[in-house]
Amino acid sequence: MKNTRFTRAKSLALALGAAVGLFFLTGCDVGITNLTPGVLPENPSQIYTISTRVKPKAVNVVPGSLVVRIIIDGQSFEMRKSPLGTDIYEFDYQLPAGRAEIAYYFLVNYKYENQGIIIDREEFTDVIRSKILGRYVLSLETNRGPVGARVSVLGRGFTAADTVTFDGTPARTVYDSPNSISFFVPAVETGRNYKVEIAGANGTSPVGTFRVDTTALTVTPSELSLSQGQSQTLTFTLSNPAPTGGLLLDVTTDAPDSVIMPEVVVPAGSTTATVDVKGGKPGTGSLFLKGFGSSEIAVPVSVK
């Protein structure tokens, strides 16, 4: 009898131990989803909101027992419920000066009930990182225009070293302020869209898509014959008035020592610009303009 009782007690203990073991080895009962972007735009106060969604996945989770914490810089902070949703929690973190990244993870404590037994449980995420972006773009003044048009980009964190690119091709860029930068649409192929980005010491930031429209242009006279030191006027005429900011005509030449001329800008609202071209060293070549019409415009120049 003693052996039979001992055997039964041992079997009961093993069964109970297996049941308890299965109880503790069940999967996650709470879902934790990070809602914080991987890149956060820099702000003057250096305070950033970190948010997460914590939602029970099992009916056995005791209602009201969830305590959501964020572990950041070795410190634990309790997160508050967000007005954006019943399962969303937030924490405002002030980043120390000189830091450009936040590393953190979420820790959730809760109570779980199984057959009348209340057990304290804990779940946590892997380490999550969010970068602070010192430069970001808010808006592009317009998303289309002709070659030479001046277009502004509004944002934050711009520097004089930033350059706007069209599918990787640098455009002439003007630094206006930390909150504004301008570019002149480069002489690229017209009638198509380009991916516009800003490149600089702070990396590359997407700006948007820009369509380069075709504009007709005529140049008179169609060729120049000059003596050394002699000047002659050259007039550029557009088919439509120049946009706000004017239209920069990027005139190039293969005879830079023979041609002396100023930068050509058609004023906003005007259709013409006239400049004086002066003969330099004797030689021959041409003036070139791209992006106006279906082919490159060439004005032959000879200097005697």
Structure, described:
The protein is mainly β. The chain has one helix and 29 strands. It has three domains: 24-133, Immunoglobulin-like (Sandwich), CATH 2.60.40; 136-213, Immunoglobulin-like (Sandwich); 217-303, Immunoglobulins (Immunoglobulin-like), CATH 2.60.40. It has one helix spanning 2-24; strands spanning 30-34, 39-41, 47-56, 67-72, 75-78, 80-81, 88-94, 101-114, 117-124, 128-133, 136-140, 144-146, 150-156, 163-166, 169-170, 172-177, 180-184, 192-200, 203-213, 217-220, 224-226, 231-238, 247-249, 252-253, 259-260, 264-266, 272-279, 283-289, 297-303. The strands form seven sheets. Strands 2, 4, 5, 8, 9 and 10 form a six-stranded mixed β-sheet that branches. Mean pLDDT is 86; it is low at 1-26.
Short description:
The protein has one helix at residues 2-24; strands spanning 30-34, 39-41, 47-56, 67-72, 75-78, 80-81, 88-94, 101-114, 117-124, 128-133, 136-140, 144-146, 150-156, 163-166, 169-170, 172-177, 180-184, 192-200, 203-213, 217-220, 224-226, 231-238, 247-249, 252-253, 259-260, 264-266, 272-279, 283-289, 297-303.
What is the topology?
Elements: H1 2-24, E1 30-34, E2 39-41, E3 47-56, E4 67-72, E5 75-78, E6 80-81, E7 88-94, E8 101-114, E9 117-124, E10 128-133, E11 136-140, E12 144-146, E13 150-156, E14 163-166, E15 169-170, E16 172-177, E17 180-184, E18 192-200, E19 203-213, E20 217-220, E21 224-226, E22 231-238, E23 247-249, E24 252-253, E25 259-260, E26 264-266, E27 272-279, E28 283-289, E29 297-303
Parallel strand pairs: 2-10, 12-19, 21-29
Antiparallel strand pairs: 1-3, 3-7, 4-5, 4-8, 6-7, 8-9, 8-10, 11-13, 13-17, 14-15, 14-18, 16-17, 18-19, 20-22, 22-27, 23-26, 24-28, 25-27, 28-29
